[in-house]
Each structure stands twice: as C-alpha cells, then as structure tokens.
Design brief:
By secondary structure, this protein is of the alpha+beta class. It folds into three domains: 87 residues, Orthogonal Bundle (Butyryl-Coa Dehydrogenase, subunit A, domain 1), CATH 1.10.540; 108 residues, Beta Barrel (Butyryl-CoA Dehydrogenase, subunit A, domain 2); 160 residues, Butyryl-CoA Dehydrogenase, subunit A, domain 3 (Up-down Bundle). Helix content is 51%, strand content 12%. It has twelve helices and eight strands. The strands form two sheets. The chain has a four-stranded mixed sheet. Helix 1 packs antiparallel against helix 2 and helix 3 crosses helix 7. It is globular and about 80 Å long. The two termini are 12 Å apart. Bound molecules: flavin-adenine dinucleotide. Flavin-adenine dinucleotide (FAD) binds next to strand 1 and helix 12. The site of flavin-adenine dinucleotide has 20 residues, from strand 1 and helix 12.
C-alpha cells in the first residue's frame, strides 16, 4: 500500500485543481450567498466542467459517468473536496444516490431519474431522518407506507431533507412491513415526485447560518404514488442504505481531507508570513510549530486510514471497522485543522474574507451527518471487543 497519489491519477488531479483555482474559488462567495446569481454561475461552471471532461468522473460509465476506477476516483475527490462548490460544478454530489438507483432501480426508474441525475438534469433528495425519532438508528423511524391496490400510501414527517427545496424527487424510507417483521427487513425506499398531493413542505431549514443549503421539513399525509415507485424489493430499505453508505464514507472522507489540505495550506502560509511581537515571524514561535505538527500528524494518519479502508472496499471486503473509524478520524481532524488555521489568522480567520469560517461551520456538521461520531465509535469498539471475546484478538499486522 502506498499513500502517494498513483502516477496515472496525477494529471486529472492537476486538471481539477487548476479548474478550481482558476474558476471555482472566485465563485465561492457568490455560491455561498445562494439565490439566482449563485445558480447562474453554477450553471456556467458546470457547462465548462462538462466541456473539459471533468463531469461526474466517478459515476460508472454504464450510467453515463466518467467511469473512473474506484480508488483513482477517491484520489480525484480529494482535490474536488477542497472547495464545497466544486461538488456541484463537477457533478459529484449525486454519486451515492446514483449507485443506489443503479443497484435497485427498474429500467423505467433509471430512464426517469438515474440517467438525468447523472447528467445533472434532475435532483433527488434522500429522506430518512425524522424529528420525532432518533434517526441515527433508522430502525426508529415512524413513517409508514401501506399498499392499497396499485398505490403506496405514505404517512409521516421527515426533516433534514437536504436539497428538498429544489428536488424533483424524494427517495423516502418508510415502514412497509408489519411491526412483528424482522426490523432490518421492515423498511423500504419509495420514490415520491415533488408536488404529489398530500406532500407538504412545512418549513425550510438551515444550519449554523449556512443559508445556501436548505434541508426542509416535510409532512406526508396520505401521499399516494404508484406501486411501481418502490425502489428495489419490499423490505430492502436497509440493504439499499448500505449500498449508498459504504462507498460514500470513502468519497466523503477523501473530500474532507481535501478541506484539511486547504486549511493546512492557509495555516502554513500565514505562519510563514505574519509578523507579530517585535516583528518576529509566527514561524519562529514554537506554539505555532505545534499547530503544524499536530495538523500534520492528524492529517497523515487519517489519510492513511482512509486509503487503507478504500483499498479494502476495492477488494470487496466490507471493512466495517475501518469505514466507521475513518468517519470519526477525519471529521475530528477536519474540525481541528480548520480550528487551528482560524487561530493563526487571528481576527481575519473569523471573517468572511477567508473561506475558513464557512469551512469550520461545515466541519461541525460533519460530526453529526453520515451517522453521528458516537455511533461509529460504538461500532468499532464493540466489534473489536467481540473479536477478543471470541479469542481472535485484533492483530493490526494481519489486517
Ligand atoms: C446539515 C444536515 C444535513 C442532513 N441531510 C440529511 C438528508 O439529506 N437526509 C436524511 O435523511 N437525513 C439528513 N440529515 C440528518 C442526519 O443524518 C441525522 O441528524 C443523524 O443521522 C442523527 O440523527 P438525529 O439528528 O435524529 O440524532 P439522534 O439519533 O437523536 O442522536 C442525537 C445524538 O445522540 C448521540 N447518540 C446517538 N446514537 C448514539 C449511540 N449509539 N451511542 C452514543 N451516543 C449516541 C449523538 O451525540 C447524536 O448526535 C442531515 C443532518 C444535517 C445536520
């Protein structure tokens, strides 16, 4: 295993980075304000990215994507991640949902949702979490769907439906099986077109003042969709969840590592250039060197863990411990590195002259989304202790 970027991936990474530096960074403040001006600039940059062969690089070629091999794409995504707006510009945001639709969708569902989605022509939000149920464990969810003739009838309340405000479709997870059914086979995913009668967008929701991102709350009251809108088979909701989440944790954490790199670059440049007491450069201060050291160690070890997990998934292993561990390791690293980068910039670091303050707010979100960190810590701890209880131990050299 090597942690360096393979030679054959370097040219595409360089091309992506040049595009981001030349076009996306300048558009970032407009993107973060949201609204029509942001949409216009996004559309222009998307067209440009498509023309330059940089669109949907990691989506399989069979669905109209760039077809980059899994691990190569993870390295490319590390560059795309430097700037949040770049996910939209390069069409990478839809990969998780597209993999799920590809795995379980009927040909009609693929024609109507998947292929347009890969092209960026349609948006499907994903909706599991509920205000009234601890949804870090989705077996808690209360939304139901009952089959009546050739229609599903859905009732429930969902929130944090990211992008729901501009979604054409919502993929909703609901209980379709009786209360006494085995819990992991009791839920299904159903595709609901926006505007279906009975579906109400109760309110828009924003977090930490990030107004360009909307995660509305929805009420389902006797919402009727055709039986054919079931995604996959009845009771397969959790299975599809896994299809969605496994690779997503690699692509997300690689993206966050891209953010770490950007914050690290800003921090080191600042330390090398800012003069403080008696004209001394910050770089002469050991407390500043400590920030560099701590960030270096955290990024290097988190990155090694992500690449290790990605290689294991690439070989077809489930790598549950590794995948859970990286979610926590990288979200913590991201938070810490951006925090230090802000600190060394003083007041400037907190201002919106720099991207750090927005990155910091996003980093805080990451410790809750994709499963709160505690859920992953628990999974890692429990699994390893079970191995010990079974007499197997946990030999790092054999993993
Ligand atoms: C910006 C944003 C975007 C989101 N987008 C979407 C989306 O598009 N679709 C969607 O369905 N959901 C989305 N979510 C919801 C997100 O997935 C949930 O918030 C997350 O799964 C946690 O669920 P919860 O908020 O109900 O927390 P709860 O389940 O109520 O948990 C609350 C807290 O309890 C602790 N906790 C939970 N479980 C354990 C445990 N086993 N051990 C120890 N402590 C524990 C953790 O500290 C956790 O943060 C989004 C959330 C945010 C903030």
């Amino acid at each position: 295993m090597s942690f360096g970027v393979p030679d054959h991936v370097r040219p595409i990474r360089e091309k992506l980075l040049r595009f981001i530096e030349d076009h996306v960074y300048d558009a970032e403040p407009i993107y973060q304000r949201g609204g029509p001006e942001a949409e216009a600039i996004q559309a222009k940059l998307r067209d440009r990215a498509k023309a330059e062969g940089l669109w949907a690089l990691g989506h399989p070629a069979s669905m109209g994507g760039g077809g980059m091999p899994w691990l190569d794409y993870a390295y490319a995504n590390e560059v795309i991640g430097r700037c949040d707006a770049a996910m939209d510009v390069f069409g990478t945001y839809s990969l998780q949902s597209c993999l799920m639709l590809d795995a379980a969708g009927t040909e009609a569902q693929k024609q109507t949702i998947l292929y347009p989605k890969v092209r960026g022509d349609t948006y499907m939000a994903f909706s599991v979490t509920e205000p009234g149920a601890g949804s870090s464990d989705p077996t808690n969810i209360q939304t139901t769907a009952r089959l009546e003739g050739d229609e599903w009838v859905i009732n429930g309340r969902k929130w944090y439906v990211s992008g729901g405000d501009h979604a054409d479709w919502i993929c909703v997870m609901a209980r379709t099986e009786p209360q006494d059914a085995p819990v992991h086979g009791a839920f299904s995913m159903i595709l609901v077109p926006a505007g279906t009668p009975g579906l109400t967008r109760v309110r828009d929701m924003h977090v930490l003042g990030l107004t360009h991102m909307n995660h509305p709350e929805y009420l389902y009251e006797e919402v009727r969709v055709p039986a054919a809108n079931l995604l996959g088979k009845r009771g397969e909701g959790f299975k599809l969840f896994q299809v969605r989440l496994g690779p997503a944790r690699i692509t997300n954490t690689m993206r966050w590592l891209g953010q770490c790199q950007r914050a690290f670059d800003l921090m080191c440049d600042r330390i090398n250039s800012r003069k403080v007491s008696k004209g001394a450069l910050l770089s002469t201060k050991q407390l500043m060197q400590q920030h560099v050291y701590d960030s270096y160690v955290e990024i290097q070890s988190a990155r090694a863990q992500v690449i290790d997990a990605a290689e294991k998934l690439g070989k077809g292993e489930q790598a549950r411990v590794e995948v859970s561990a990286i979610k926590v390791a990288v979200s913590r690293t991201l938070h810490n590195v951006i925090d230090r980068a802000i600190q060394v910039h003083g007041a400037l670091g907190l201002s919106d002259d720099l991207p750090l303050e927005t990155m910091y707010r996003m980093a805080r979100v990451m410790r809750i989304v994709d499963g709160p960190d505690e859920v992953h810590v628990e999974r890692v701890g429990k699994t390893i202790l079970k191995e010990f209880a079974a007499g197997n131990g946990w030999d790092f050299g054999q993993r």
